[in-house]
Queue: 2 jobs
Job 1
Amino acid sequence: MKILGIETSCDETAASVVEDGVSILSNVVVSQIDIFAEYGGVIPEVAARSHLEAMMPVINKALADASCSWDDIDAIAVTHAPGLLGSLLIGTLTARTLAILHDKPLYAVHHLKSHVYANWLNGGLSEMASLGARRSLPSPRGSRATTRAAALRTPFDKPSSDKPTFPLLALVISGGHTQILYMPGHNQFEIIGTTYDDAVGECFDKVAKILGLPYPGGPSIAKAALDGDPNRYHLPHPKVEGLDFSFSGLKTAVLRAVQKELGLPISHPSHDLKNHLSSQQVADFAASFQKTAVDILCEKLKIALDMHPDAKSVVVAGGVSANQALREALPEAYFPIPALSGDNGAMVAAACYFEIQSGVKPVDPYKLNIYPRISID
Ligand code: KG4
Ligand code: ZN
């Protein structure tokens, strides 16, 4: 079964053809990062306009790269929630129109589900790098963020099987979400932990701003951290019971630590601090922050595993799952191939395939709605 997956929930215009939920025949991602680096963040109206321009060329390239005509496509899958309203609209309106025009069944996929299903996709598409996929980063110096690894419960003697097995725990970490999900089986999601405030990716982005590192903050912090000492600055862990998270306090802790390091008062404007920091201080703050964020995620996962001893696999998903320090801290967990950690169409097609296997029915292309804030469960 060949599914065309379409993703436009934020600032990536993406389309992909995937066979039977696991084999990527094509994967085209046009990122708007260059546009938004200038502004330090996404401007929703600009994102929607850029999707409009890129959408059809991206879909046509995905079909051409997969050597598919419309006759070869069995279904269309599109992200309909959650995300930026204007961005979701462009993807879903395109998918609805194409479904009607080419008489294909249309499936609506939740963005976080699709991130989780990136873990079922096979790697090995060598052209991926040239198709706008993101680079993975080399190991951080000393890799001290790995200290928590041994603390996680085994029996995940590194992915024993090629694919994750159920029941499983999924750590979904992106720019908009930080959740731990319990999945008894395919397409079954129970939220067992979530953030009270900022998502961890958002925290990377905000800390990067304080340090004067470019948008998006995750990759630039990871890069700066390579030259930094993760133990130079001690940052407190938020006191949140159980499996929930809070990341806004960590951002403020970095802010206060930078002000203290520079001998400036807490009233000193955050946007000016970068002008006073040396590159070594930036690297040390990046490394110390990254280590703290990774430690917090690992600690919560460990609690989740203690509470769900039946879990047979741990999968990590979402943009922050590209983080190399986190990957090294969780050697027994499944991660998507780095190029598929961020937003892409292949994961939408994969999630759709497993939804169909679970009995999910197509939606009416004349009626499909978007839901910018709806939860996964
Ligand atoms: O999943 P995603 O591409 O978009 C959303 O659904 O939000 O996630 C984007 C987030 C951003 O906050 C970005 O800074 C973060 O993922 N990110 C990273 C890394 N690469 C991207 N965070 C930490 N380390 C990375 N290497
Ligand atoms: Zn995402």
Job 2
Amino acid sequence: MDKKLVFASNNEHKLEEMRSILGVSYFIVSLREIGCFEDIPETADTLAGNALLKARHIKMYYNYDCFADDTGLEVKALNNAPGVYSARYAGELKDSEANMRKILKELENLPDRTARFRTIIALILGGKEYLFEGVVEGEITKEARGNAGFGYDPIFVPHGYNETFAEMRADVKNKISHRAKAVEKLKAFLI
Ligand code: IMP
């Protein structure tokens, strides 16, 4: 296997997920493994913009084929907020509990609790740029439920299910999630 692809992340959980899906055909390399330790700017105001910023940084400064992802929770009644600002919705501390409380408060008197997670993956391969999107539609609960997962998982119930992402087994979530769908598209393109 000689095809090397940098994934612009140091998140072990995500790297593991990518390796299990793409690992048969590609050697997936982390930022640490290429010696990239700087904070890559994520200053765009769209998910695609941020994913591209990260992938272009790797291509420009390290000259590797690479891909990067960016994810947001989009709540319909909040004009698709927090979207690209999901990680720091309640402030720079990136506190998931505070982020969830803020959404529950904002939705308190609003009847429409429709929301979706959206992931964009930007791939730079052979000097060309490609984008892949994965979406999972669902509803925001009235209160947080479950301990698994991370981020907004305890307040999101995907359509067709009764449990929140945080109440589901990881393998169930990882089959239907926004990220899984985007990675499956990337895989279909690459392999
Ligand atoms: P990232 O682009 O994957 O770093 O995601 C940005 C933010 O979106 C995270 O900090 C989380 O708050 C949220 N997020 C991303 N993916 C998920 C998920 O699968 N479940 C819950 N929250 C998520």
